[in-house]
């Protein structure tokens, strides 16, 4: 009983810190479960851009991988099964910052604005809150995202006979700083933040809205079934809205940089968008959509189920 009292007083004394920690724990579980799909998605999005640069649209050698399963099997066969988790460490670091900040920001935004008289949170408020929370969280976590993307591509570089750029998280951070200074850690932050705002418009806004619609208009209780249905919807909407920005973000962050830390392939997210559409067509913006959705769906479900259950265990009200 003393432990429960101490735990309860700790939760009440530092509610935002508590919610940050719980969000980070739930996100870590979800990230480790679904990380191989994130690696597959990244490889699919990167392939083809080098050939476009060297040979022009329609030229160049055939791509090494075709489709999600081909990419995943190719990684296992050529690099080993453990390489499916290459870059998982910075990915976990990223979500400790990103998910913790975005969840606390959204709840704070929702508490400040308050619900309507009928105890609903209007969709337009939820949309603004979701985009704001995603943008703030991603800006804070952008350096870890840059390290994650670069580490994910190391196995592919070795197979192409290119020298490795990094051998670990610490070395990757030092390399980025040596090439572009502290500002280099935020390379690609604009498309990064744009993507996060769109993804959270789909994820946070959809989950919060769908969950409370189900609770108000159906006989469902505030339990795992309700959370699962809401998270399924949020994963699909987030993938649909976020994939184009995700492709642009990944390409900008993965491009080589000159001595001043500027990208040598793309000058901006708009330039990357134009080059991608011109060289590979509009459909290139949805490269990796299937693995993105197949990752976001289980990620979203794992995260929300874990998050809601942890909150319940800690005596915190449902999200």
TrEMBL record:
Designated name of the protein: Mitochondrial uncoupling protein 4
Function of the protein: Facilitates proton transport across the inner mitochondrial membrane and may dissipate excessive proton gradient associated with oxidative and metabolic stress at neuronal synapses. Regulates glutamate-induced proton conductance in astrocytes, shifting the energy metabolism toward aerobic glycolysis and lactate transfer to neurons for ATP synthesis. Can transport chloride ions with lower efficiency. The transport mechanism remains to be elucidated.
Reactions that this protein is recorded to catalyse: chloride(in) = chloride(out)
Subunit structure: Homotetramer.
Membrane topology: Multi-pass membrane protein
Localization (cell): Mitochondrion inner membrane
GO CC annotations, alphabetized: mitochondrial inner membrane
Alphabetical keyword list: Membrane, Mitochondrion, Mitochondrion inner membrane, Repeat, Transmembrane, Transmembrane helix, Transport
Swiss-Prot/TrEMBL Solcar repeat ranges: 18-112, 121-213, 222-313
Keyword Hydrolase: no
Homology family: Belongs to the mitochondrial carrier (TC 2.A.29) family.
Transmembrane portions of the chain: none
The species this protein was found in: Esox lucius
